[in-house]
Amino acid sequence: MAVRRIELILAKIIAALDGISAATAGKTLDDFRDDWLLRHGVERGIEIISEATRHIPDDLIALAPEIPWKQIRGIGDLLRHEYHETSDAIVWTVVTDSLSPLRLAVERILEASRRK
């Protein structure tokens, strides 16, 4: 896959991560539960991240083995197809615990892709 295409995919992931971070700054789980637009915006951002990660080649994914790529790729399907059963607490935990390490990993992958 062309380096330029990978850079665009990684940039979309970073943009979604930054958007979620900005939207949730200073918020609590209760804020998240009570704000329909916030909740759906965050879920959509996670869907974008999930789908975009499916297009990162395995050799680049291997640069961040600490990231649960399979779960990231799968959460988008869960949000799209099982939305009626989606737990706000689980989504909020993803936001508070998983997105920051993912951003660091994506930045590392982006740097590596530029060196190719």
TrEMBL record:
Q: Which domain of life is it from?
A: Bacteria
Which Pfam families does the record cross-reference, listed alphabetically? HepT-like
Q: Which UniProt keywords apply?
A: Hydrolase, Nuclease, Nucleotide-binding, Phosphoprotein, Toxin-antitoxin system
Q: What is this protein called?
A: DUF86 domain-containing protein
